[in-house]
Amino acid sequence: MKQRIYINDVAVRDGFQIEKNFIPTETKIALIDALSETGLAKIEVTSFVHPKLVPNMADAVEILANINRVKGVTYSVLIPNLKGMERAIETHKTRGKVDEINVFLSASETHNRANVNRTCDQSFEDFAIMIKMAKDAGIRMMGIVATAFGCPFEGHVPEERVLGFAKRYVDLGFDGVTLGDTTGMANPAQVERISAALVQQCPNVEHTLHFHNTRGMGLANVVAGIRAGIVSYDGSLAGLGGCPFAPGATGNICTEDTVNMLEDMGYDTGVDLDKLLAAAVKMPAIVGHEVTGQVMRAGKTMHLHAVPDKLYTQ
Amino acid sequence: MKQRIYINDVAVRDGFQIEKNFIPTETKIALIDALSETGLAKIEVTSFVHPKLVPNMADAVEILANINRVKGVTYSVLIPNLKGMERAIETHKTRGKVDEINVFLSASETHNRANVNRTCDQSFEDFAIMIKMAKDAGIRMMGIVATAFGCPFEGHVPEERVLGFAKRYVDLGFDGVTLGDTTGMANPAQVERISAALVQQCPNVEHTLHFHNTRGMGLANVVAGIRAGIVSYDGSLAGLGGCPFAPGATGNICTEDTVNMLEDMGYDTGVDLDKLLAAAVKMPAIVGHEVTGQVMRAGKTMHLHAVPDKLYTQ
To answer: Which strand (E) or helix (H) includes residue B176?
Structure first.
C-alpha cells in the first residue's frame, strides 16, 4: 500500500500574480479546468487582493463563477485582509462557491509589516474576525505562516516563533496550517526539524508545506517534510512564480517535477502526470516567457530514447 | 563537530566537453586555478578523449602542464580507453602530474555499447590493464558506474548489476567507486537504498555520487546519499553540463548550489562559497550562454535585502 501525498497547485494565483501582462480570464478558467482533471487535491484559483495592486487577480469573481468544479478537488482562494474576506464571502454566496480560504502572516515582523502593513498581533486580530466569517459561511480556513524558514530582511526566524503562530491559528479554530518558504531560504535539515515540531504541537489539523526552489533546494525540502510526517505540498505548474528580490530567480517548486519525483519514490500522489504535463507545456505560451519546469523539458524519468546511430562520447 | 562532506568540481571536463565553441586553454587554466583556491576536494581538469570527438578536450596536456597545483586538492582526469590511458600516463611522466584517473562503464549494456563500443565485460578487461598502468605510475584510480540509477535506453537498471560492477572495480584494486546518474533518472529513495548497499558491500574504498539535475531531484539525491553514509559529491560550477537527449535540459548538479545547501544544513564542505560564487558568475561569459546555477542569481541563503519602500503584495 503506497503512502498518499496530496499535491496542491498554486500557479494560477502565486504564479500569475507576478505576471506583468494580464492573462485572459478564459485562459485562467481553461487552465483551472484542465488542472481539475489531473487528480490534484487542491487548486488555489485566485486571490481577493486589490485589483490595482495585483491586476492579474482582478477577475477573481468571474473565475469562481465560471470554473467547472470536479468532485474531490478543493478550490481555494487567498485573502490578504478583511476587505478581501468580505468580497470572498459575498462571491461564495452569490456567484461561485469557495471551498477554502488561505490567509497569511509572515513569521518575521519586518516582513509582515512590509507585506500587509500590520504587526503580527494585528494580523491575528483580523484572523479572529475572519475565521468567524468563514465558519458562518461554511468555508474551511487555512492559516499560512510565511517566511517560516527565513526572512529576506531579518534573516534567521526563530522556530518557536513559527510554531507559536501555527498554534495561534489552531487555537482560533483554523482547519490547517501552511508553512511557507517565501523566498527559498529553507534547507532540508531545518524543514525536517520544524515540520516534526509542527506535527507534534498541532496534531489535529492539516499541515501543508509551501516551498520555493529559489536556491535549488525545493524538492529536497519536500522529501524532508515527508520524513517529518507532512503529506500535503503546494507546487506551481511549470514552476511558475518568482522571487521579488532576484530577477530571474526560480519561484515555487514545480508541481509536475514534484509529482514525477514522488511517484518515482513510490508515493501515491493521485495525480495523472501525463495530464499535468499536457497542461504545463502550454504555460510558456500563456505567460509569454520561458518557465523553469524540468520534466517538461527532459521527459518523465522513464521516458526512454532510441539508441543513437552515432556514438556520443568517444 | 560538523560532519565533513567532500565536494569535487567537474565543470571543466563534464561541462566544457559539450560546449560547441572551443574554450581557450588559458581560460580553462585560469578557472581551474581559481577553483583550486576555493577549498574543493577534487577538480576534474580534463579528459584524454579523442580530440576530434570532443574538441574542447584537445588541450589536455597543456592544462596539466600549466595549472597551479594547490596542496590538498586532487587533480583528476577522465579516461575513456587504453589509448587515452597511455596519453595520460605519458603526460603524467613528462608534462604534468595526474593525481587520479577516472574510468567508466555504464551499468546498462546498451548504454555502454553506445558510449564506448564495448560490452561491460570488455570494459573490465581494459580496466584490468589500466589499473596496473596506473599503479605502476603511482596514480590513484576511481571507477565510475554510469547510468547507475537508470538508463535512457533500457530504463530500469538492476541494483545488483550496479553493485556487481562496483565490486569488480574494488576487486581489481581501484581506490574508489563513483555511481553516476548520467541522465538524471535517480530519485532520493533509490539513491539512499543503493548507496547504503554500496557502502556495505565495498566498505574499504572511497564512494562518490555524481548527480545530474535533469528532473530537479539533484540536491534531494545528495541529501539521500549523505543519509546513506556517502561523503563525496561531484558538482559542476554554475550547473554547467547538459543532457544529450534533451536540448535545454539541466545538466550536472550545480557545485555552488550544493555547497550552499550543505553549509545551511550544518555540514562542513571546506569550501569558501564566496570564492566559488566569484568563479561561477564568470561562467556565462566563458561559455556564451546562460547557466542554471541558482544561488548565483538569488544570492546565498542569508543574503539579506533592504526593506522596500513600497509594499509589494498589497
So the answer is: strand B176-180
d(CA A237, CA A44): 11
Check CB contact under 8 Å for B50 and A261. Answer: no
| Residue B235 β-bridge partners | B9
Predicted TM-score (pTM) above 0.80: yes
Rounded to an integer, what distance in angstroms lies between the CA atom of residue A235 and that of residue A244?
18
Per-residue pLDDT tens for A193-244? 999 999 999 999 999 999 999 999 999 999 999 999 999 999 999 999 987 7
How far is A50 from A97, CA to CA, in rounded Å? 20
Which tens digit of pLDDT belongs to each residue from B40-92? 999 999 999 999 999 999 999 999 999 999 999 999 999 999 999 999 999 99
CB neighbour list of residue B46: distance below 8 Å, 6 or more residues apart: B12, B13, B28, B57, B59, B60, B63, B64, B77, B78
User: Which chain B residues contact residue A183 at CB under 8 A?
Assistant: 298
- Cβ separation of A216 and B254 shorter than 8 Å? yes
Shortest CB distance from A244 goes to which of B266, B304, B312?
B312
Nearest to A215 among B214, B216, B294 (CB): B294
Question: Structural domains in chain B?
Answer: 6-298 (3.20.20.70)
Suggest the residue from A190, A219, A236, A281 to mutate for an interface test with chain B (most B CBs closer than 10 A): A219
Is the Cβ pair A304, B154 closer than 8 Å? yes
pLDDT tens digit sequence for A94-116: 999 999 999 999 999 999 999 99
Cα B288 to Cα B299: distance, rounded to the nearest angstrom = 22
- Within chain A, residue ranges assigned H as helices are 25-36, 60-66, 82-94, 109-116, 120-137, 159-172, 188-201, 218-227, 255-264, 273-280, 283-287, 295-298
Q: How far apart are CA B292 and CA B297, in angstroms?
A: 9
| B311–A260 CB contact, under 8 Å | no
